[in-house]
Amino acid sequence: MSEKGIEGIVTTWGTRLQVPAAVLRALGLGAGDRVEWMIREEDGKRVAILRKKEEVKSGK
Q1: pTM for this prediction
Q2: CA 25 to CA 40: how far, in whole Å?
Q3: Which residues of the chain fall short of a pLDDT of 50?
């Protein structure tokens, strides 16, 4: 996996986190996509692992 450096400012709106569009595009995400994340410590720093949740399709 390659590393990309993208800078932007994260803001909030109520209890929602807003991420710059360039970051979403780099992750292959769009507004409204469901995600799950895990936060862990690496070398004394917190690292967030973000992944797009797979959509569950019902058989109806």
Answers
A1: 0.51
A2: 24
A3: none
